[in-house]
Amino acid sequence: MLKLYRLTGCPYCTMVQEKLAELGLPYEAVEVPADRQLRKEVFKVSGQYFVPVLKDGDKVLDDEDKIIEYLETHHKPKEKPA
């Protein structure tokens, strides 16, 4: 399952969430603290404190443009039932 580290009100996080919704991909959203110094889990996963961060298995991406490109190339849109 995809895991997205995000911060409410972050426009870059919103961009990634909108792409995930557009592709119909389920994901776990992890809300991070506003204070970057407190984002210990984000740092542990990605080696830095900024969001969004997407974890897909062993793959970790830490930039919204890279995340969106990755989602578009590695995850096909889910078919909507007729």
Percent in strands: 15-25%
Q: On the 0-100 scale, what is the average pLDDT?
A: 94
* CATH hierarchy: architecture: 3-Layer(aba) Sandwich
CATH topology-level fold name: Glutaredoxin
The major beta sheet can be summarized as: 4 strands, mixed
Strand order in space, largest sheet: 2-1-3-4
- Gyration radius (Cα, Å) is 13 Å
The unreliable regions are none
Distance between the termini: 25 Å
| Strand segment count | 4
Q: Topology as H/E string?
A: EHEHEEH
**How many separate structural domains?**
1
Any idea what the CATH superfamily is called?
Glutaredoxin
- The general outline is globular
Helix content: 25-40%
Give a brief description.
With 82 residues, the chain is α+β, with helices and mostly antiparallel strands. The protein has one domain: 3-Layer(aba) Sandwich (Glutaredoxin).
Structural features, described:
This protein is α+β, with helices and mostly antiparallel strands. The chain has a single domain, classed as 3-Layer(aba) Sandwich (Glutaredoxin). A 4-stranded mixed β-sheet has the order 2-1-3-4, with helices on both faces. Strand 1, helix 1 and strand 2 form a beta-alpha-beta unit. The protein is globular, with a radius of gyration of 13 Å. The two termini are 25 Å apart. 21% of the residues are buried.
Task: For this entry, give a set of tags.
Glutaredoxin; 3 helices; single chain; 82 residues; alpha+beta; 4-stranded mixed sheet
Topology (SSEs and partners):
Elements: E1 2-6, H1 11-23, E2 27-31, H2 40-46, E3 53-56, E4 59-61, H3 64-74
Parallel strand pairs: 1-2
Antiparallel strand pairs: 1-3, 3-4
Helix pairs in contact: 1-3
